[in-house]
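Below is how a single chain appears once it has passed through the pipeline. First comes the sequence as given, then the structure the pipeline wrote out for it. We keep one example in the README because the format questions we get most often are answered faster by looking than by reading.
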Amino acid sequence: MRHITVMALTSSVGLMAVFLVDFVDMIFISMLGKAELAAAIGYAGAILFFTSSFGIGMSIAGGALVARALGSGDRERAQRLATNVLIFGFGFGALFAALVWLNLGSIVGLVGATGETAALAVSYLTIVIPSLALLLVGMVGGAILRAHGDARRSMMATIIGGVVNAVLDPILIFGLGMELQGAAWASVAARVAIGVAALVPIVRHYGGFGRPSLASMLPDFRPVMVIAIPAILTQLATPLGQAYVTRAMSQFGEDAVAGMAIIGRLTPVAFAILFALSGAIGPVIGQNFGASRPDRVRRAFFDGLIFSGIVVCAVSALLFLARPGLEILFALDGEARTLVFLFAGPLSLLWFFNGIIFLSSAAFNNMGHPFYSTLLNWGRHTLGTIPFVIVFSTWFGASGVLIGQSVGGILFGILAVLLALGVIRQGGAGGDPSDGLLRQARVFGWLYRNR
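Resulting structure:
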């Protein structure tokens, strides 16, 4: 328990820094006093979360392949792979960004935005989306640093981007009076900073990059895609589920979507420790599984459950006490106030079941059953979201959207723990556990979801 607690708390520090920037970003937008601006950020966030999934998949592929090459002692191959994956990431990122950019009006409409709010979301995304290729460079660069075992510099790249965002936000939004467009340009600058901060350490400390050539790129394309495509498909579950929830909330007006957007920025700040736990407990389970110690695997899993319960109870209590402050900070009223207060109370307690899903996924990935993690993730964000949101929103309106999403989490949390205990009891599967970056994919996704 002590080992898990220390690892989770220390890992959460860097995450908290990044999440706080996104939270402050929403505070600045809310200070403008226009519900449609906060709602536009909510719609744009759902789309940006979707686009980041492509980068996460490429990052997982790059990190895994470079790590294997380094592990085999072939540094020249590792350098070549790092170069080619960056080129692939930039190229596909540019193509994907162009496809999304040309269809922004339709895509924003799909998530439920209409009228002035839709126009604001499109104006924001028109600025941010073209920089997707730059973000992918930063994400793949961060993965390469992790492959070299340099998680600190990888995290620092994201933190530097967050600092740039935080500094430019008030200058552009208020100082130059650019409002939402100011927030968009601050995000573009943050993406550039992430890319530079990720690539510079690779050049300085790890031999840099090789000269690209078509002869080397073609053989590397297939192994990259073999890992990247399944990883992308796995990562798409969460943003697709969130896009559906955003669309469901849109029928209750801009205040409701604004409230949901605030909750979306508040959640990772409040539960950063849970996100860190899923990455921190993975090596504990993996090492004891590798040492054929199922008793320690079981103990680590149950200690993780206890730790999650303690964290959720403590955070929920703090959120409940923070209600008056949140009301003042975001100038909450109407539907937005109802939703934020609903989350900062009973619904935050139900985050325990999301913690169970995170822990179970870590167990699956480290005991040779990564497919279970994929299946669980897709199930949670489809069968565990859509029907429940439909039913509860019919009964309780906008509040029912959040309630339905949480109730689905309860059922899949119970399913996850039963499945995980079954895998532990059977002793996992043969072969090597999943790559370290794959274990951190969920955290990676949250780090970049609003970038």
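Residues 294 and 426 are 9 Å apart (CA to CA).

See the next section for the split statistics.
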